[in-house]
Amino acid sequence: MRLCVFDLDHTLVDTPLDLAAMAVDMRALLETRCGPLPARPDRYRVGELIQWCQSNAPDVEKPLWEVALDHERRAMAAASLEASAREAIEGVRAAGFATAVWTNNARDISAEALARFGLLSVLDLVVTRDEMRALKPDPDGWRVIVEHFGVPRDAVVVGDSWVDGVAAGAAGVPFVAYRPKEPDLARWNITPVARLTDLAALPAWLRARDRGAR
């Protein structure tokens, strides 16, 4: 079995979701309830705030997720289908690949967006934070994917962000970067097997990769 796994935000759908702003609001809530967090040179990211909360203030985890959900709902309400997203998924399937989404978003919000854009029918699996034990860049979502499909003989992860690349690398899966931020790739030592500026090019790239492997 061959598998192509897509990120959701800024890969299949274009949204104004701002994870840095989400983290600022989550940190503000956490510090209101628990006091100042330990100082550090880098900003706290969403997954790190959740981990800190789970270890130090588990009673605050639910309201912390509500802050995240509010950001996600507003972003998805303004979302649009990424150019060539459906074409890419259908082309990947025609090339013999099963298809999945691996996203840090909540299941209800993800499913609603995928249904609105007519993508649920061309996806074999959707893995959200509700099924994972930890958010990307942790690779736990890959565990969920393998439990569903088994270990694929060939797989790629397609995403826009360094978190997708780190998660793919930790899972041992090649990463295809879609319009990535190059400084982020360099900072996290991510070397994609391909860089795409148009999702429509993905099926042809997979076919060329197959020919090159023969």
Characteristics:
single chain, 214 residues, alpha/beta, 2 domains, 6-stranded parallel beta sheet, two-stranded antiparallel ribbon, 8 strands, globular
The shape, in one word, is globular
Give the strand tally: 8
> CATH topology of the largest domain, anyone?
Rossmann fold
From the N-terminal CA to the C-terminal CA, the straight-line distance is 17 Å
Structural class: alpha/beta
Question: Class of the largest domain in CATH?
Answer: Alpha Beta
Q: Spans with pLDDT under 50 lasting ≥5 residues? A: none
**Number of helical elements:** 9
Describe the model.
It is a single chain. The protein is of the alpha/beta class and 214 residues long. The protein folds into 2 domains: 2-15 and 80-213, HAD superfamily/HAD-like (Rossmann fold), CATH 3.40.50.1000; 19-77, no CATH class. 48% of the residues lie in helices and 14% in strands. The chain has helices at residues 19-34, 46-56, 61-77, 85-94, 107-116, 140-149, 162-171, 182-187, 202-213; strands spanning 2-6, 13-14, 80-81, 97-102, 125-127, 154-159, 175-178, 194-196. The strands form 2 sheets. It has a 6-stranded parallel sheet with strand order 5-4-1-6-7-8, with helices on both faces. α2 (46-56) packs antiparallel against α3. 38% of the residues are buried. The mean pLDDT is 96.
SSE blueprint:
Blueprint: E1 2-6, E2 13-14, H1 19-34, H2 46-56, H3 61-77, E3 80-81, H4 85-94, E4 97-102, H5 107-116, E5 125-127, H6 140-149, E6 154-159, H7 162-171, E7 175-178, H8 182-187, E8 194-196, H9 202-213
